[in-house]
Amino acid sequence: MSFKKQDAEGTGVLMGWDGSSVEMGEKRSNEEELSKRQKKLKHGKLAQKRREQAAYEEEKLRKLPMQGAEAISEHFATVIRAQNPDLSAIELDEMYLKKSEFLGTEAFDGVRNLHEFPGFMARFSRAPRAIVLSMSNIRVADVYRSLGGSSQCVKLFAKNKLHEDVATVESVLGADKDKKDKKDKKDKDSKKKIKYFVATPTRLEKLLESTELFFEGKDKLDIILDASYLDSKKNSLLDSENTKVLCKVLRTMLDKKSSVKVLLY
Q1: Whole-prediction pTM value?
Q2: In the beta sheet, which residues pair with residue 156?
Q3: Which of 160, 166, 214, 235 shows the greatest Cβ crowding within 10 Å of its Cβ?
Q4: Are 77 and 250 contacting, i.e. CB atoms less than 8 angstroms apart?
Q5: Contact, 204 vs 163, CB < 8 A?
Q6: Are 139 and 182 within 8 A, CB to CB?
Q7: Domains of the chain by range and CATH?
Q8: pLDDT of residue 7
Q9: Residues paired with residue 222 on neighbouring β-strands, in sequence order
Q10: Does residue 26 have a pLDDT over 80?
Q11: How far apart are CA 178 and CA 217, in angstroms?
Q12: Phi, psi of 35 (to 5 degrees)
């Protein structure tokens, strides 16, 4: 038989028949301490799992550009399904990027950084012109410098006004069409040397809505995805807030322009 009473300090004491006692306050304290340790251990395990998952996703993103066309196409299909959960299978099929629309670059064994970008382009991009898509304005500027600057590239991004970028595209691609006009021949010749349009997906989307020049002509066109770069938050072009826009502009270009191939760097 036992009973509980309050001592002089108000602490609960459990009294036994033989006069032994257990401090209830101390018991609760031990239980709370054990509970805290268990919670800390549980949270530590969850945090470790999250870190491991994040590291796995990061490594998967880094390796994707080195995969073949089939693996890349499957990745985009997964992304498109996740972004459009309410669409039917038929509607989704119209949005998918087919294996045949990609050109695998797994044979490239160099480090995929800014320094190696020109060598990669020289080896894999054989079209007269190429659109290079990067995830941010800052990255566009970095790629622009890496690929030769103003002698070979134009920057198309939100730091420019849209009408300025439209005029730039028209001056470059219009120079290809306007071969009979001898006026400003030197300027037109310099425009013809431009090979790369370096842009963000959002700016390219607006340009495709503003001009048809990207769709005209029978010349081949490559679209290079700057996919190896991860920002400080470990986001890539293929896994960022602009990925939905990226999928849209790729599908638009592939549908409206002949002889287009998509390559991942």
Answers
A1: 0.78
A2: 199
A3: 214
A4: no
A5: no
A6: no
A7: 41-175+191-262 (3.40.50.300)
A8: 53
A9: 130, 261
A10: no
A11: 13
A12: -60, -40
Share of the chain above pLDDT 70, in %: 80
Q: Give the separation between CA 226 and CA 229, rounded to whole angstroms.
A: 6
pLDDT digits (tens, 9 = 90+) for 157-201: 999 999 999 999 999 998 666 555 555 555 555 566 899 999 999
Q: How far apart are CA 130 and CA 117, in angstroms?
A: 13
* Largest Cα–Cα separation, the chain: 115
Q: Are 96 and 61 in contact (CB under 8 A)?
A: no
Are the CB atoms for 171 and 181 separated by under 8 Å? Answer: no
Q: How would DSSP label each residue in the chain?
A: --EEEE-TT--EEEE-TTS-EEEHHHHHHHHHHHHHHHHHHHHHHHHHHHHHHHHHHHHHHHHGGGS-HHHHHHHHHHHHHHH-TTS-HHHHHHHPPPGGGB---TT--S--STTTHHHHHHHH--SSEEEEE-SSHHHHHHHHHHTTGGGTEEEESTTS-HHHHHHHHHHHHHHHH--S--TTHHHHHHHHT--EEEE-HHHHHHHHHH-SGGG-SSS-EEEEE--S-B-TTS-BTTSSTTHHHHHHHHHHHHHHSSSEEEEE-
CA distance 12 to 253: 77
